[in-house]
Specification:
- The protein is about 35% helix and about 20% strand.
- It is built from 10 helices and 13 strands.
Length: about 300
Protein backbone atom coordinates (compact mmCIF):
# COMPACT_ATOMS: atom_id res chain seq x y z
CA UNK A 1 0.00 0.00 0.00
CA UNK A 2 1.56 3.26 -1.11
CA UNK A 3 -0.45 5.85 0.88
CA UNK A 4 -2.27 5.61 4.23
CA UNK A 5 -4.81 8.26 5.25
CA UNK A 6 -5.83 8.36 8.93
CA UNK A 7 -8.68 10.55 10.14
CA UNK A 8 -12.35 11.44 9.88
CA UNK A 9 -15.15 9.82 7.88
CA UNK A 10 -18.46 11.73 7.68
CA UNK A 11 -21.73 11.91 5.84
CA UNK A 12 -22.19 15.44 4.47
CA UNK A 13 -25.69 16.95 4.50
CA UNK A 14 -25.62 19.95 2.15
CA UNK A 15 -28.12 22.78 1.65
CA UNK A 16 -27.66 25.26 -1.20
CA UNK A 17 -28.76 28.84 -0.38
CA UNK A 18 -28.68 32.26 -1.98
CA UNK A 19 -26.52 33.62 0.85
CA UNK A 20 -24.98 32.19 4.01
CA UNK A 21 -27.20 32.85 7.06
CA UNK A 22 -26.19 35.48 9.58
CA UNK A 23 -26.45 34.75 13.31
CA UNK A 24 -30.07 33.95 14.14
CA UNK A 25 -31.18 34.06 10.49
CA UNK A 26 -33.12 31.30 8.75
CA UNK A 27 -32.43 31.04 5.02
CA UNK A 28 -34.63 28.93 2.75
CA UNK A 29 -32.47 26.63 0.68
CA UNK A 30 -32.76 25.94 -3.03
CA UNK A 31 -31.57 22.30 -3.03
CA UNK A 32 -30.49 19.54 -0.64
CA UNK A 33 -27.86 16.84 -1.21
CA UNK A 34 -26.22 14.16 0.89
CA UNK A 35 -22.66 13.12 0.09
CA UNK A 36 -20.05 10.80 1.50
CA UNK A 37 -17.35 12.97 3.09
CA UNK A 38 -14.94 13.45 5.96
CA UNK A 39 -11.46 14.83 5.41
CA UNK A 40 -9.60 11.52 5.54
CA UNK A 41 -12.18 9.78 3.38
CA UNK A 42 -12.14 12.60 0.82
CA UNK A 43 -8.37 12.63 0.61
CA UNK A 44 -8.26 8.86 0.19
CA UNK A 45 -10.79 9.02 -2.66
CA UNK A 46 -8.80 11.80 -4.36
CA UNK A 47 -5.73 9.55 -4.25
CA UNK A 48 -7.56 6.42 -5.43
CA UNK A 49 -9.15 8.24 -8.36
CA UNK A 50 -5.67 9.02 -9.67
CA UNK A 51 -4.81 5.33 -9.62
CA UNK A 52 -2.56 5.36 -6.53
CA UNK A 53 -3.12 2.53 -3.99
CA UNK A 54 -4.48 3.91 -0.72
CA UNK A 55 -5.93 2.70 2.59
CA UNK A 56 -8.02 4.75 5.00
CA UNK A 57 -7.99 4.21 8.77
CA UNK A 58 -10.87 5.51 10.87
CA UNK A 59 -14.17 4.66 12.52
CA UNK A 60 -17.87 4.76 11.64
CA UNK A 61 -20.98 3.85 13.59
CA UNK A 62 -22.96 0.67 13.08
CA UNK A 63 -25.73 2.53 11.25
CA UNK A 64 -26.97 3.14 7.74
CA UNK A 65 -24.67 6.14 7.37
CA UNK A 66 -21.62 4.05 8.26
CA UNK A 67 -22.35 1.41 5.64
CA UNK A 68 -23.04 4.11 3.05
CA UNK A 69 -19.66 5.70 3.79
CA UNK A 70 -17.76 2.41 3.52
CA UNK A 71 -19.55 1.51 0.28
CA UNK A 72 -18.68 4.89 -1.22
CA UNK A 73 -14.99 4.46 -0.39
CA UNK A 74 -14.91 0.96 -1.81
CA UNK A 75 -16.61 2.06 -5.02
CA UNK A 76 -13.79 4.58 -5.53
CA UNK A 77 -11.10 1.94 -5.06
CA UNK A 78 -10.08 2.77 -1.47
CA UNK A 79 -9.02 -0.10 0.81
CA UNK A 80 -11.43 0.02 3.78
CA UNK A 81 -10.20 -3.04 5.71
CA UNK A 82 -8.82 -0.79 8.47
CA UNK A 83 -12.09 1.03 9.24
CA UNK A 84 -13.66 0.11 12.59
CA UNK A 85 -17.45 -0.24 12.81
CA UNK A 86 -18.49 0.81 16.32
CA UNK A 87 -21.91 -0.51 17.44
CA UNK A 88 -22.07 1.90 20.39
CA UNK A 89 -22.11 5.27 18.59
CA UNK A 90 -23.26 7.07 15.44
CA UNK A 91 -21.31 7.86 12.30
CA UNK A 92 -19.91 11.36 11.91
CA UNK A 93 -22.14 13.92 10.21
CA UNK A 94 -21.30 17.31 8.70
CA UNK A 95 -24.01 19.92 8.12
CA UNK A 96 -22.93 22.18 5.25
CA UNK A 97 -24.49 25.35 3.86
CA UNK A 98 -23.23 26.52 0.45
CA UNK A 99 -24.04 29.88 -1.16
CA UNK A 100 -24.39 30.75 -4.85
CA UNK A 101 -20.69 31.70 -5.04
CA UNK A 102 -19.48 28.38 -3.65
CA UNK A 103 -18.58 29.69 -0.18
CA UNK A 104 -19.64 27.46 2.69
CA UNK A 105 -20.04 27.05 6.44
CA UNK A 106 -19.69 23.62 8.07
CA UNK A 107 -20.73 22.21 11.45
CA UNK A 108 -19.73 18.65 12.37
CA UNK A 109 -21.00 16.09 14.87
CA UNK A 110 -17.95 13.88 15.17
CA UNK A 111 -19.64 10.74 16.48
CA UNK A 112 -17.40 7.73 15.84
CA UNK A 113 -14.55 10.02 14.77
CA UNK A 114 -14.26 11.24 18.37
CA UNK A 115 -13.60 7.69 19.55
CA UNK A 116 -10.67 6.86 17.27
CA UNK A 117 -7.99 5.52 19.62
CA UNK A 118 -5.92 2.36 20.28
CA UNK A 119 -7.75 -0.11 17.98
CA UNK A 120 -7.32 2.23 15.00
CA UNK A 121 -3.68 2.90 15.93
CA UNK A 122 -3.10 -0.86 15.75
CA UNK A 123 -4.73 -1.01 12.32
CA UNK A 124 -2.62 1.96 11.26
CA UNK A 125 0.59 0.32 12.48
CA UNK A 126 -0.19 -2.81 10.49
CA UNK A 127 -0.23 -0.75 7.29
CA UNK A 128 2.94 1.25 7.87
CA UNK A 129 5.53 -1.30 6.67
CA UNK A 130 4.03 -1.00 3.17
CA UNK A 131 3.34 2.74 3.35
CA UNK A 132 5.34 5.40 1.55
CA UNK A 133 3.27 8.44 2.52
CA UNK A 134 0.91 9.13 5.44
CA UNK A 135 -1.76 11.84 5.56
CA UNK A 136 -3.13 12.99 8.90
CA UNK A 137 -5.76 15.60 9.82
CA UNK A 138 -7.39 16.82 13.02
CA UNK A 139 -10.91 15.43 12.75
CA UNK A 140 -10.00 12.72 15.29
CA UNK A 141 -8.58 13.15 18.83
CA UNK A 142 -5.31 15.10 18.91
CA UNK A 143 -3.64 12.49 21.11
CA UNK A 144 -4.35 9.87 18.44
CA UNK A 145 -2.94 12.13 15.72
CA UNK A 146 0.26 12.64 17.72
CA UNK A 147 0.68 8.91 18.33
CA UNK A 148 0.09 8.20 14.64
CA UNK A 149 2.69 10.83 13.69
CA UNK A 150 5.27 9.19 15.94
CA UNK A 151 4.55 5.77 14.45
CA UNK A 152 4.69 7.08 10.88
CA UNK A 153 8.10 8.66 11.43
CA UNK A 154 9.38 5.50 13.15
CA UNK A 155 8.60 3.72 9.87
CA UNK A 156 10.30 6.47 7.79
CA UNK A 157 7.08 7.51 6.05
CA UNK A 158 6.75 10.95 4.52
CA UNK A 159 4.14 12.63 6.74
CA UNK A 160 1.67 15.29 5.56
CA UNK A 161 -0.57 17.08 8.08
CA UNK A 162 -3.72 18.94 7.07
CA UNK A 163 -4.30 20.99 10.28
CA UNK A 164 -8.09 21.00 10.08
CA UNK A 165 -10.36 21.37 11.92
CA UNK A 166 -7.81 23.85 13.19
CA UNK A 167 -6.64 24.14 16.77
CA UNK A 168 -4.17 26.84 17.80
CA UNK A 169 -2.40 24.79 20.45
CA UNK A 170 -0.78 22.05 18.40
CA UNK A 171 2.07 20.38 20.34
CA UNK A 172 5.57 21.40 19.28
CA UNK A 173 6.40 17.74 18.83
CA UNK A 174 3.79 17.39 16.10
CA UNK A 175 5.32 20.22 14.07
CA UNK A 176 8.73 18.55 14.32
CA UNK A 177 7.39 15.16 13.19
CA UNK A 178 5.52 16.47 10.15
CA UNK A 179 7.32 16.73 6.80
CA UNK A 180 4.69 18.95 5.13
CA UNK A 181 1.94 21.00 6.81
CA UNK A 182 -0.85 22.38 4.59
CA UNK A 183 -3.04 25.02 6.30
CA UNK A 184 -5.44 27.24 4.40
CA UNK A 185 -5.63 30.98 5.16
CA UNK A 186 -7.96 30.61 8.14
CA UNK A 187 -6.02 27.72 9.62
CA UNK A 188 -2.68 29.46 9.12
CA UNK A 189 -4.08 32.58 10.82
CA UNK A 190 -5.10 30.61 13.90
CA UNK A 191 -1.84 28.67 14.04
CA UNK A 192 0.39 31.77 13.92
CA UNK A 193 -1.84 34.33 15.65
CA UNK A 194 -2.11 36.94 12.90
CA UNK A 195 -4.26 37.38 9.79
CA UNK A 196 -3.17 35.51 6.68
CA UNK A 197 -4.93 36.92 3.63
CA UNK A 198 -2.50 36.77 0.72
CA UNK A 199 0.94 35.79 -0.50
CA UNK A 200 2.88 38.26 1.66
CA UNK A 201 1.21 37.27 4.93
CA UNK A 202 1.34 33.60 3.89
CA UNK A 203 5.11 33.92 3.56
CA UNK A 204 5.26 35.48 7.04
CA UNK A 205 3.08 32.66 8.40
CA UNK A 206 5.33 30.06 6.83
CA UNK A 207 8.32 31.65 8.53
CA UNK A 208 6.53 31.45 11.88
CA UNK A 209 5.59 27.81 11.27
CA UNK A 210 9.22 27.00 10.46
CA UNK A 211 10.17 28.52 13.82
CA UNK A 212 7.63 26.20 15.46
CA UNK A 213 9.38 23.23 13.86
CA UNK A 214 7.63 22.73 10.52
CA UNK A 215 9.97 21.62 7.73
CA UNK A 216 7.85 22.32 4.62
CA UNK A 217 4.81 24.61 4.62
CA UNK A 218 2.10 24.97 1.98
CA UNK A 219 -0.46 27.72 2.67
CA UNK A 220 -3.44 27.42 0.35
CA UNK A 221 -5.01 30.76 -0.57
CA UNK A 222 -8.12 29.82 -2.56
CA UNK A 223 -8.45 32.02 -5.63
CA UNK A 224 -4.99 33.50 -4.91
CA UNK A 225 -3.21 30.16 -5.39
CA UNK A 226 -0.87 28.87 -2.72
CA UNK A 227 2.52 29.52 -1.13
CA UNK A 228 5.19 26.86 -0.69
CA UNK A 229 8.06 27.36 1.74
CA UNK A 230 10.91 25.29 3.09
CA UNK A 231 13.68 26.59 5.31
CA UNK A 232 15.70 27.79 2.30
CA UNK A 233 13.21 29.27 -0.17
CA UNK A 234 9.56 30.07 -0.79
CA UNK A 235 7.54 30.60 -3.93
CA UNK A 236 4.01 31.32 -5.06
CA UNK A 237 1.97 28.75 -6.97
CA UNK A 238 -0.43 30.44 -9.36
CA UNK A 239 -4.13 29.50 -9.24
CA UNK A 240 -5.99 27.88 -12.12
CA UNK A 241 -8.98 29.89 -13.29
CA UNK A 242 -12.11 27.71 -13.23
CA UNK A 243 -15.82 28.38 -12.60
CA UNK A 244 -16.55 27.94 -8.88
CA UNK A 245 -19.65 25.91 -8.00
CA UNK A 246 -18.84 24.55 -4.53
CA UNK A 247 -15.61 24.79 -2.51
CA UNK A 248 -16.43 21.81 -0.25
CA UNK A 249 -13.51 19.30 -0.35
CA UNK A 250 -11.25 21.55 -2.42
CA UNK A 251 -8.62 21.38 0.31
CA UNK A 252 -9.00 17.61 0.52
CA UNK A 253 -8.54 17.34 -3.25
CA UNK A 254 -5.41 19.49 -2.94
CA UNK A 255 -3.93 17.31 -0.20
CA UNK A 256 -4.91 14.04 -1.82
CA UNK A 257 -3.47 14.98 -5.19
CA UNK A 258 -0.31 16.31 -3.51
CA UNK A 259 0.16 12.91 -1.83
CA UNK A 260 -0.64 11.07 -5.04
CA UNK A 261 1.98 13.08 -6.91
CA UNK A 262 4.65 12.44 -4.30
CA UNK A 263 3.71 8.74 -4.13
CA UNK A 264 4.11 8.59 -7.91
CA UNK A 265 7.68 9.80 -7.61
CA UNK A 266 7.13 13.44 -8.54
CA UNK A 267 9.32 16.13 -7.03
CA UNK A 268 7.63 18.70 -4.81
CA UNK A 269 7.25 21.25 -7.65
CA UNK A 270 5.33 18.83 -9.86
CA UNK A 271 3.36 17.39 -6.93
CA UNK A 272 2.25 20.96 -6.15
CA UNK A 273 1.00 21.25 -9.71
CA UNK A 274 -0.96 18.01 -9.22
CA UNK A 275 -2.41 19.46 -6.02
CA UNK A 276 -3.38 22.72 -7.71
CA UNK A 277 -5.09 20.91 -10.59
CA UNK A 278 -6.98 18.64 -8.19
CA UNK A 279 -8.14 21.52 -6.02
CA UNK A 280 -9.26 23.50 -9.06
CA UNK A 281 -11.32 20.65 -10.49
CA UNK A 282 -12.99 19.98 -7.12
CA UNK A 283 -14.61 23.44 -6.99
CA UNK A 284 -16.30 22.95 -10.36
CA UNK A 285 -18.77 20.36 -9.00
CA UNK A 286 -21.10 19.94 -6.05
CA UNK A 287 -20.30 17.73 -3.09
CA UNK A 288 -17.25 16.22 -1.47
CA UNK A 289 -16.18 12.87 -2.92
CA UNK A 290 -18.46 13.36 -5.91
CA UNK A 291 -16.50 16.50 -6.86
CA UNK A 292 -13.07 14.86 -6.81
CA UNK A 293 -11.49 14.54 -10.27
CA UNK A 294 -11.18 11.27 -12.12
CA UNK A 295 -7.94 10.37 -13.86
CA UNK A 296 -9.13 11.54 -17.28
CA UNK A 297 -10.32 15.03 -16.27
CA UNK A 298 -7.27 15.44 -14.07
CA UNK A 299 -4.84 14.54 -16.83
CA UNK A 300 -6.63 16.78 -19.32
CA UNK A 301 -6.29 19.87 -17.12
CA UNK A 302 -2.77 18.89 -16.01
CA UNK A 303 -1.63 18.78 -19.63
CA UNK A 304 -2.74 22.39 -20.07
CA UNK A 305 -0.52 23.66 -17.22
CA UNK A 306 3.18 24.40 -16.88
CA UNK A 307 5.46 23.33 -14.05
CA UNK A 308 5.35 25.65 -11.07
CA UNK A 309 8.21 27.29 -9.23
Amino acid sequence: MTVVVFGSINLDLVVEVAHLPAKGETVIGDRFFSFAGGKAANQAVAIAKLGVPVSVVGQVGDDIFGQTLINSLQSSGVNTDSITINPHTYSGVASIVVDRYGANTIACAGGANNLVREPEIKQFNNLLPQAKIVLLELGIPLATVLTAAREAKAHNCLLILDPAPVTSNLPEELYSLVDIITPNEIEASQLVGFTVDGVTTARQAASSLHQMGAKNVIVTLGSQGSLYSNQLESYWIKPIDVPVVDTVAAGDAFNGCLAAGLASGKKIEEALLWATVGGALAVTKNGAQSSLPNKESFQQLLNQQTLLG
